[in-house]
Amino acid sequence: MSEMLEKARKYEDEQGKQIKAEDRPAFHVSPYVGWMNDPNGFSYYQGEYHLFYQYNPYDTHWDSMHWGHVVSKDLLHWEYLPAALAPDEDYDKMGCFSGSAIELDDGRQLLMYTAVDHETLEDGSKRDIQTQAVAVGDGRDYVKYEKNPVLTEKDLPEGASKVDFRDPKIWKEKDGYFYCVIGSRPADGSGQILLYRSADGFEWEFVSVLAENKKRYGKMWECPDFFELGGKHVLLTSPQDMLPEGLEFHNGNGTLCIIGEMDPETYTLKEETVQSVDYGIDYYAMQTLLAPDGRRIMIAWMQNWDTIAHRCSDSKWFAQMSLPRELSVKNGRLYQTPIRELDAMRKDRVEYNDIVIDNDVITLDKIEGRTIDMELVIRPKDKENAYKKFALRFAQNQRFHTELCFRPDESVLKIDRKFSGTERALVHQRRCLIHGDANELKLRVILDRFSVEIFINDGEQVMSAVLFTEQEAKGISFSAEGAAKIDVVKYDLV
């Protein structure tokens, strides 16, 4: 073990113990101490789910990228393990950046990550150079490959940038080869996804440019993932510098899902449909795994580079991961639902049916909390006379709240947290266009102390957001302009 990794492990062990369990999310992953961003190495290995993450143990701001490490049996209750990687080699001294993990044929676990170093230009200035490196281990400790890096600028197609070459996602195909996709920037300055192949996980060859942005969806495509699902091929990526397209894509750092067919001759993705992955405020850098039971499960950084300016000054940790989600493809769209393991945490069911709200604001007995799973169906009282607006407020006290608002005449759902206690004018609102029948909107709202995730119409769309309101704010209220009828089922999550 290097001196740098040993130092990080000692520091996190000392500092992490000081953070009380109740000061963390109840079932979302947060860093043991310090800063967290992208999920890395989301995988199943030797009977456990493994999740690594971009990690700066020494501060709640981005710096000095290490790999943090947690394991779980159920994707909800996580055990912190010592940091897995530190930037302790010449080729990665500027950081061990995002990557993935897989089990090798000999039973060892392989980590593949982006290594960042500096190069000095003719004018004396420096710039980052990105290569790909690997490490092997036993699920607890890892040793970097002596021949790192395994992919460098010599392995790039013509015109591709060695400055933007990152985030390998590795898997094994039926042909016995390991494959990985890597985000890249071609000569036109937009994004592309490169495909590589290896017989053993160490020696790699370029296969193809799998997908090209061509300046359509933002610029650089970060954190790609590629897999087969429901008879289709799915590409996930996180574009930088996006421009809006109606309510489908929003400004800034976004999420993108492309569904299509893989051409077996050219190893290129033939696009069929395109959509956002998450329509809320805080969601980026998705990564998936194939569970032993065949489910495709996705997790993401429940933050966004456009919203990281707000944080509690006295907190010893910053950022969290999303709830893991089960994926499916239906009617050319990506559907997402909370992992079924969450059902085992449901306790104390409270149910109301056919509650009418007529130009009023109401609360319901025992419908409150900050660690809850709530199902909600909203309909007009009279289909011939639809309500104008329905609003759900949660994490609410006399002063603060976050609101979910639906206008059926527009089929637009809005999340709004500008009154949640934030002191910064960050991104606080997002809207999405609801598909299907506006006369019946189904929502599943999952709260976990510092976050909310809203699954719309059985997972056809999802909205995620970080919450800033103090934990004592547990109120939930319902309101309508016009006459709406609602069904509510609420569980505490314990």
List keywords for this structure.
494 residues, mainly beta, Tachylectin-2, Chain A, Jelly Rolls, 2 domains, ten-stranded antiparallel beta sheet, five-stranded mixed beta sheet, 1 helix, 31 strands, 51% strand, globular
Concise overview:
Helices cover 3% and strands 51% of the residues.
Specify the CATH architecture of the largest domain.
Answer: 5 Propeller
Please give the CATH class of the largest domain: Mainly Beta
Beta-sheet strand percentage? over 45%
Secondary-structure-based class equals mainly beta
Net shape: globular
How much is the radius of gyration in Å? Answer: 23 Å
Amount of helix: under 10%
CATH topology of the largest domain: Tachylectin-2, Chain A
Mean pLDDT metric:
96
Helical run tally: 1
Extract low-pLDDT stretches: none
Please give the domain count. Answer: 2
Main beta-sheet annotation: 10 strands, antiparallel
N→C terminal distance: 38 Å
What does this molecule look like?
- With 494 residues, this protein is mainly beta.
- The chain has 2 domains: 3-342, Tachylectin-2, Chain A (5 Propeller); 345-493, Jelly Rolls.
- Helix content is 3%, strand content 51%.
- It is built from 1 helix and 31 strands.
- The chain has one helix spanning 3-16; strands at residues 34-45, 48-56, 66-72, 78-85, 96-103, 109-120, 126-137, 142-144, 165-172, 178-184, 192-198, 204-212, 221-229, 232-239, 256-263, 268-275, 284-290, 296-301, 317-318, 325-330, 333-338, 346-362, 371-380, 389-396, 402-407, 412-416, 429-433, 441-448, 451-456, 461-466, 475-493.
- The strands form 6 sheets. Strands 22, 23, 24, 25, 26, 27, 28, 29, 30 and 31 form a 10-stranded antiparallel beta sheet that branches. A 5-stranded mixed beta sheet has the order 4-3-2-1-19.
- The radius of gyration is 23 Å and the shape is globular.
- The two termini are 38 Å apart.
- The mean pLDDT is 96.
